[in-house]
Amino acid sequence: MKTMREILRADSSDDFDMQMIGKFLSFASRGDRVGLNQMLIQGISPDVQDYDNRTALHLAASEGHTPIVELLVCYKANVNLKDRWKRTPLTDARLYGHRDICRILEVNGGNDFTNDQLMTVRHEEDSNDVKFDMSELNTEHSSTIRQGSFGESERVKWRGTWVVKTVVKRQICNPVKMILSAKDNTLLRELRHPNILQFLGSIVQQEEMVLITEYLPKGNLENILRQKARLDLPTAFRYALDIARGMNYLHEHKPCPIVHNHLGTRNLLQDEGGHLKIGEYWVQMLYEQINPDQNGKRSNPRNIENLIDDPKKDVRTFGFIFYQMLEGRHFMTSTNFDTINEEPVDFKPKFHLSRCTNRIHQLIEHCTSNNPSEIPSFGAVIEILEEESSSLGRAVCPC
After folding, report:
1. Would you place residue 315 in the very low, low, confident or very high pLDDT band (cuts 50, 70, 90)?
2. How many Å apart are CA 241 and CA 274, to the nearest integer?
3. Domain assignment of residue 378, yes or no
4. Structural contact between residues 364 and 319, judged by C-beta atoms closer than 8 angstroms
5. Which run of H or of E encompasses 285?
6. How far apart are alpha carbons 394 and 359 in whole angstroms?
7. Shared domain check, 80 and 9
8. Mind giving me the DSSP string for 280-319?
9. Boundaries of each Protein kinase domain copy (predicted)?
């Protein structure tokens, strides 16, 4: 029987291999030293890489997980492997200001080959490298999947790795023209967080926008809730924290916050480690309003001009999703959950089944409130969830 090391080194295109690599890198990104060490003991190479040639050391250095960096160095991880942007782990540690990690890497021979120049978003004329060549997509064993609400998706192979190809048609929401500029494309490819789906690139093909994203084989939250109706408290808290952390990363993005505006159970996807990742956070960037009004301003479909840049709509949607996880879809009464955030509605959450604390009741009430001043930020949501989850007597998710 092959060892894990032999399996992972034999054929990097194997679907099982990529799941194991994804799990390993997820442990590094989250700071899970126990999980990472167990896989290293079983024989996985510390130098396995993701779609962008990033290693566990790159991810740990970016996130500031010093114990993970020390562990990987003990296992003789290559401290000078370069990712797609020619950055080493030391480059990332310096970029995010983790001085203790910089010292560890330097002592162990780490180099920064970028001459201390920080990676910035490139100008559109310099961004040709993010465009996909459709001929690289192998559809020989492709299959149709459902990974989100916008567009038709199928699983295909790109450079030997399973990815998701999504074709988004022009009529996503009439009347609009779908645009994903080179600047947006570059920005999306450079986003990195354990709780957001990895965006790999896009290409315009005639009247359609083709998006390439990470493939997660375990389905979405909608499927999970369809099978289980409602979740136990620890699982609901863990999923809620996954969503809140991913959304907080997007909302706190500098210099421009990224507002999702289309958050839903269909684009909350489960990774190999059983955590949720947020997908379709790029959809709002696809809208370019093309009907100017009499003053020359572009009109917005469905009167969403006041919502596009308002992160509180995302928090409100999160509140409904959290409530659904705790109480089940049938306790949404007569309200249509899929359209509940299109227009403000009177919603009074009632907790019949879940045995949550009053603090969680109040959190959901505030998140789903029609009064914007009552709706908290995702940072405040995370703080409450972490404190409440610790009172359950078990760690919901490593911070």
Report:
1. very high
2. 13
3. yes
4. yes
5. none
6. 18
7. yes
8. -TTGGGGEEE--B-TTSPBP-GGG-TTTTT-HHHHHHHHH
9. 139-392
